[in-house]
Amino acid sequence: MNVTDALKRRISTRAFLDTPVSEAEVRELLDTARWAASGGNLQPWQVHVVAGEARQRVIDAVQKKLSTNPFTNEAGFPVYPESLWEPYRSRRFQVGEDMYALLGVPREDKGARLAHLMENYRFFGAPVGVFFSIDERMGPNQWAHLGMFMMSFCLAAEAKGLATCMQEAWTPHRDTVAKALGVEKPYIVYCGLALGHADPAAKVNQLRSRRAELDEFASFDGF
After folding, report:
1. What is the pLDDT of residues 111-148, one digit of tens each?
2. pTM for this structure?
3. If DSSP codes are grouped into helix, strand and coil, which group holds residue 50?
4. Strand ranges (DSSP E) for the chain?
5. What is the distance, to the nearest Å, from the Cα of residue 14 to the centroid of all Cα atoms in its chain?
6. What is the rounded CA–CA span in Å between residue 133 and residue 188?
7. Half-sphere exposure of 115 (CA within 13 A, CB side)
């Protein structure tokens, strides 16, 4: 599989089989992703991979927090800007509506929508969870480099026939996750990622989020 194919095939997988993924397989993916671009070669990332009991420990910690105080944002910033403006508001709304339409969940069924949202905190059934952390003293440039590393990991997984879902849903609970993982300052957990084999029978995995046309975001001059 070439890079173009991997980019076009990769999706946010939201239903996984319970087929195991070995430590050796995850090590191979990380060994590939470590060659991602990194400004100044800082490589400002740390990675925490959980499976089995360790995975369940993170799930239990966040589930406990959600049951007591679900609205606390430990990150100190929203995942998305508040009061999103156009065209971003419509893009976010559309992908949500497309997903729930595939699931057959109407807008008024708030309970079913919440139940699906809560599957984030079970990695959508994926057997492996991956968390990415960064030194909190780093700036916006280094956060961008972390994102490039994460995308490189996802493309490496796609090339090996594995599925991923980047999960910023963990971000508001990052202190709880950090405690469960044993991550200590100055490192802070940014987000999580579900890794495994996609469930081909799950309707939600048919979702392909729409993308803006090239001329909506790119300009060319001097050609």
Report:
1. 989 889 899 999 999 999 999 999 999 999 999 999 99
2. 0.95
3. strand
4. 45-51, 128-135, 163-167, 187-196
5. 10
6. 5
7. 7
End-to-end Cα separation, the chain, in angstroms: 32
The reported pLDDT for the residue numbered 77 is: 86
d(CA 151, CA 10): 10
- What b/e sequence results for 139-178 when a residue is b if at least 16 CB atoms lie within 10 Å of its CB, and e otherwise? eeebeebbbebbbbbbbbbbbeebbbbbbebbbbbbbbbb
Q: Show the tokens assigned to 11.
A: 């999706």
CATH fit for domain 3-77+119-201, picks 3.40.109.10, 3.40.630.10, 3.30.230.10, 1.10.510.40: 3.40.109.10
Rg (CA), the chain: 18
Looking up tokens 């991979």 gives: 49
Give the CA distances from residue 196 to residues 7, 14, 200, 207, 219, in Å, rounded to whole numbers and listed in that order. 18, 10, 12, 17, 38
